[in-house]
Design a protein that fits this description.
Its EC number is 2.7.13.3. One of its GO terms (molecular function) is ATP binding. Keywords: ATP-binding, Kinase, Membrane, Nucleotide-binding, Phosphoprotein, Transferase, Transmembrane, Transmembrane helix, Two-component regulatory system. The protein is an alpha+beta fold. The protein has four domains: 168 residues, no CATH class; 66 residues, no CATH class; 109 residues, Beta-Lactamase, CATH 3.30.450.40; 132 residues, 2-Layer Sandwich (Heat Shock Protein 90). Helix content is 63%, strand content 10%. A hairpin with a 5-residue loop joins β7 and β8. α3 runs parallel beside α8 and α6 runs antiparallel to α7. The two termini are 75 Å apart.
């Protein structure tokens, strides 16, 4: 087992210097504590060592911090003031005079040094840091001036001490924080607190005045109790208003069950394009993070967006599958709180992008397979049309010529069989070839197909309500589905009536139904139905056949409408 190595780092020189400055600044105050009567000057001096403590913290983080070095210099101000005054005959009395004369100028000078030493960059957080520093400095100067004018030197010394400690803590906090809230948000917090206090005080005052006029015993107690109750009752409303304000700015930070249900409401229905899911994922991010515009693209290429928009890569397994882009409310980008929300959602959004990419690739693969099968069918069609067709015609002509010279029952039967074979061949070719759709009119092709069965047995009725924009492979599949359903009804069902319905549903699904009143099932699917089922599945659709004994047969095919004109 390896022994753990512990490295002890000694105190750095800048931190040691800050500690010495703190001790030097605190020494005059500690000397004053030894006097019989605590001098006011000792109180003035007890506030400045706080800068030394803040300097040590900053220099420990960054030994080259200009702000930390400036605070080291401010920490020794009490020692400098005391050393210049103790040389006078009056001793501590001279120190008192120095502090009362120069306390406010020294504080202003110290704040000026702090402002000079802060590294101000032209970014959002630095500007907020400067605003908070100016606000804290103004509050310190105002408090000290108010104490000097109304409370006397000792009260002013106490206020100065507390103010310097508070200012040092504020400076240290501002210098170490990486995220700062917008300035108006603490104002909202202060407004909620002030409104709560004012409402409580108002209600308590009214109750006390009413109690005095009506002679209620101890109206002050009643007023105080009413003030507390009113404040407690108003506080939830104030916090709700604050939450509403933050939600409008940053979003809720998470998705509720209602948000998820609304966004995923139609995920189980058929979609024409799986890329529609990207819009739902973008809506999820926008709802959670409070951004106005959020978009998603699939692929390794970067989208073309304005320069101030934020762009996040979507990766799965180390591969970039897409990009998320959003329009921030601030030109410098999302707020840190929004940034965290977006990054928490990135893994989920990346999986959505990957799933959409796979779905799009699967759609392309299905269309490629359908085109290959069409090519193979065209080859088979050529072989049937140019090879077997002429052979059957020639055989039929020879048989009928021989029948005219030497009539016989065998030749008569053979001529009929050849005629049936030629009729079956024409029907097979009609089902294989997409040439009937060359004019792009699927409805007319279906009318001709239904008409070709006239006089051969069942009565065929056709109802058609199709969208004109169907992908070519979908149009061919619809045509072949109707042809297969009519052929089966004629050959096997012994039906009297066949109803064909072809329509495009509102969710961009093509629905084909062929229903007959024939003998029904049970039956074993043949080559035609099996081939039709494979074609429907290749195109992302389904085929169902329902047949009951003596109740006819219904063939139902559902296909995605695709995109493009039929042809």
């Amino acid at each position: 087992m390896n022994d753990a190595v512990v490295v002890h780092r000694g105190v750095s020189g800048p931190v040691a210097g800050a500690a010495l400055a703190t001790a030097a600044g605190a020494a005059p105050g500690l000397l004053g504590l030894g006097e019989t009567t605590l001098p006011t000057g000792a109180l003035y001096g007890l506030g400045w060592p706080a800068f030394g403590i803040a300097a040590a913290l900053l220099l420990d983080r960054d030994p080259r911090s200009r702000l930390g070095r400036a605070l080291v210099a401010l920490a020794v101000v009490p020692a400098i003031v005391t050393m210049t005054a103790l040389g006078a005959p009056s001793g501590w009395q001279a120190v008192e005079q120095r502090w009362q004369r120069f306390a406010v100028p020294l504080i202003v000078a110290a704040l000026a040094v702090i402002a000079w030493s802060v590294d101000i960059a032209a970014d959002r957080m630095s500007r907020r840091r400067l605003v908070w520093l100016v606000a804290g400095s103004a509050a310190l100067v105002a408090a000290v001036l108010a104490a000097f004018s109304s409370g006397g030197s000792r009260v002013a010394a106490v206020v100065t001490t507390l103010g310097l400690w508070g200012t040092a803590a504020l400076i240290c906090r501002l210098a170490t924080m990486r995220e700062l809230r917008p300035v108006d948000e603490p104002l909202v917090d202060a407004a909620v607190a002030a409104a709560t206090l004012l409402i409580g005080a108002g209600v308590g005052t009214l109750v006390r005045i009413g109690g005095e006029h009506t002679g209620v015993p101890r109206p002050d107690v009643s007023g105080a109790f009413s003030a507390v109750v009113a404040a407690v009752l108003f506080l939830p409303a104030g916090l709700w208003l604050r939450r509403q304000f933050l939600t409008r700015r940053y979003g809720p930070g998470a998705l509720s069950a209602a948000d998820v249900a609304e966004i995923t409401a139609d995920l189980h229905t058929r979609t024409e394009d799986p890329r529609e899911l990207l819009g739902k994922a973008a809506a999820m991010v926008a709802a959670a993070s409070g951004h106005r515009q959020v978009g998603l693209v699939v692929g390794p290429d970067l989208p073309d967006v304005p320069g101030h928009w934020a762009l996040y890569p979507l990766t799965v397994g180390g591969d970039r599958v897409g990009s998320l882009y959003l329009e921030p409310r601030h030109p410098e980008g999302p707020e840190p709180r929004q940034e965290r929300i977006v990054r928490q959602l990135l893994p989920t959004v990346s999986l959505v992008a990957k799933a959409v990419d796979l779905a799009v690739e699967a759609g392309h693969a299905r269309r490629d397979l359908a085109r290959e099968r069409d090519t193979e069918r065209a080859r088979i069609l050529g072989d049937l049309h140019d090879g077997l067709g002429p052979v059957l015609v020639g055989m039929s002509m020879r048989v009928r010529a021989e029948l005219r010279h030497r009539p016989s029952p065998v030749l008569e039967a053979l001529a009929g069989d050849l005629a049936d074979c030629r009729s079956d061949l024409r029907r097979i070719v009609s089902g294989l070839t997409p040439s009937v759709l060359d004019d792009g009119d699927l409805a007319a092709a279906l009318d001709r197909l239904a008409g070709s069965f006239a006089g051969q047995g069942p009565e065929v009725t056709l109802g058609s309500d199709l969208d004109a924009r169907l992908a070519p492979e979908i149009a061919v599949a619809v045509y072949r589905s109707v042809a297969e359903g009519l052929t089966n009804a004629l050959r096997h069902a012994h039906a009297q009536r066949v109803a064909v319905q072809v329509r495009t549903t509102p969710d961009r699904t093509v629905l084909v139904e062929v229903t007959d009143d024939g003998v029904g099932g049970p039956f074993a699917p043949g080559v035609g139905l099996s081939s039709l089922r494979r074609r429907a599945e290749e195109l992302g659709g389904t085929l169902h056949v329902a047949a009951g004994a003596g109740r006819g047969t219904r063939l139902r095919v559902e296909l995605p409408a695709g995109d493009g004109a039929a042809g």
